[in-house]
Amino acid sequence: GQQVMQIPQYQHVQEGEDFTTYCNSSTTLSNIQWYKQRPGGHPVFLIQLVKSGEVKKQKRLTFQFGEAKKNSSLHITATQTTDVGTYFCAGPRNNDMRFGAGTRLTVKP
Amino acid sequence: DTAVSQTPKYLVTQMGNDKSIKCEQNLGHDTMYWYKQDSKKFLKIMFSYNNKELIINETVPNRFSPKSPDKAHLNLHINSLELGDSAVYFCASSQGRGWTVYTFGSGTRLTVV
After folding, report:
1. pLDDT single digits (tens) A37-55
2. Ramachandran sector of residue A53 (left: φ over 0; alpha: ψ -120 to 50; beta: rest)
3. B99 touches chain A (CB under 8 A)
């Protein structure tokens, strides 16, 4: 079935460094969503991208949807310790959203 | 006022026991889900109900049985618990199916000993 592949699985950065996680699909996606799960918490919706080539920003977070609508990225500028957690992308299937494996971000102060 | 609430938050039980997890949402959503998250953080869909109708039933042992008495509630009953059932179980809800925003509950950490 349709899957979204997400890389890297883990990323360790020094506070202040940038971070990027990538999501790829073998099929065209009608939309893609991003979620953040803090340690010990639950996934929380961040954003949804719908248009080809779309770029959206939330403060230090920049989300992109590829021109072919098969890939997406989340970039965090100048990471802070509050950014720690697992970031998931999710793409639609027939009756649900399928989640990528997630990228676990740790930030060293 | 919690949007999607799950109980219990923690559950420690012995192998072979039967246990239930309850979920309720007050968002007026018509679709609810159960996800299992293993130690590697992978979120695996188990079941989904839309207006009390089962619409997703993934390859899950038949020891797991969902029940949705109404569209605001989705419970998960697990028979004959095994060590491998230890995980965090998340309930989620959404308005409609497919590409729609999910709201997750805070999770139930199940430990089978």
Report:
1. 999 999 999 999 999 999 9
2. left
3. yes
Cα separation of B82 and B88, whole Å? 14
Mapped onto helix, strand or coil, the DSSP state of residue A77 is coil
Residue whose structure tokens are 């989300």? A63
A78 with A55: CB under 8 angstroms? no
User: What gap in Å lies between CA A70 and CA B22, rounded to an integer?
Assistant: 36
Distance from CA of B105 to the nearest CA of A (A): 7
**Cβ density class B25-62: b for 16+ within 10 Å, e for less:** beeebbbbbbbbbeeebebebbbbbbeeeeebeeeeee
Q: Verify whether the Cβ–Cβ distance B45 to A96 is below 8 Å.
A: yes
Residue B83, φ and ψ in degrees, nearest 5: -55, -40
Contacts of B56 in chain A (CB under 8 A): 95-96
Q: What beta strand segments (E) does chain A contain?
A: 4-7, 10-14, 19-25, 32-37, 44-49, 55-58, 61-65, 71-76, 85-92, 97-99, 103-108
Assign residue B16 a region (left: φ > 0; alpha: ψ between -120 and 50; beta: otherwise). left
- Tell me which residue has tokens 């989340």: A74
Q: What is the pLDDT of residues B3-35, one digit of tens each?
A: 999 999 999 999 999 999 999 999 999 999 999
